[in-house]
Structure formats: structure tokens, C-alpha cells
Amino acid sequence: IMRDGHIEQVGTPDEVFRRPATRFVAGFIGSPPMNLHEATVDGGQMVFASGEKLPLPGQFKANVATGDKVVFGLRPDDIYPTGHGISSGGAADVHQIELPITVTEPLGNETLVFVEFNGTDWVSRMLNPRPLRPGERVAMSLDMSQAHLFATETGKTLRS
Fold this sequence. Notes:
Elements: E1 2-3, E2 6-7, H1 13-18, H2 23-28, E3 35-42, E4 45-48, E5 53-55, E6 69-74, E7 79-81, E8 94-106, E9 110-117, E10 120-127, E11 137-143, E12 148-151
Antiparallel strand pairs: 1-2, 3-4, 3-6, 4-5, 6-12, 7-11, 8-9, 8-11, 9-10
């Protein structure tokens, strides 16, 4: 993957999709693109500009400290209405949060569900769609084992 004439990452399509080396690659590969939001680390959690908080993904705890500015990323397949996901069904590191729906986009056997988080839309995929209405609040499952963290200043992954 190149950006402005410089190599951002070299790898197979699966490698760059699953383990993006930079924030740019994370947002460039995948459709819909990865959900990306800036946050500040505060102990074992991430605090977003809106004041909303999410637990710090366990796989990054050794690589960040309180006060660090990070970009949290989660692919649409890894955030889904509880019980309607594509992500690995019995994942141990799933966080649930109730969020308002802003838009739904039916695509046949799946629906893209846009929910408001941190003042902007997150896109998620829902398998076996059920009717949802904008304004409705729905329990969303976030598979934190699939989360990505990037350094705000450099854009580089914080994965070991």
C-alpha cells in the first residue's frame, strides 16, 4: 500500500486487512472502511472527546500509558447489533454498549447499521437483518479482541 509515493505497508491482502501497520492503511483497506476515533488512555479505558468511554483492548495495555493519545479502530464486521454479528461468535473480549441508530442500509442478506458514537456515525454489519428504525437505541457488541490502536502523532500501530 502506497501513500504519497511512500510505502505504508507490504503484505498479502489478508495481512494488510487484519493487521494494518498504520491508520492510513486501516482506513484505506475494507469496504465499508474501518471505524476510527481519537481517544485518550486513562488507566484501563479510552476516553473519547464526547466523554464516552470504552475499555482498553487487552492486547494493547502493555504498549500505552495514561495520557497517551490514540486512534481506536474497529471494522464494521466487529461491531454489530447483539446477536446479529459476523464476528467470531463466542469471542471472550466482547463489550456491549447501547447506541442510537442513525441510518440503516438493507443489502439483502445483511444490513449496514449506522449508529452514533462520539458524535459521528459508526458503521456495522448485521446478519439476519431485523427491522430497525433510526432513533431506536440498540445493544451493540464490540469485539475488542479485533480492535486496533494507532498512535495519534505517527499513525503507526501500537500492536507489539
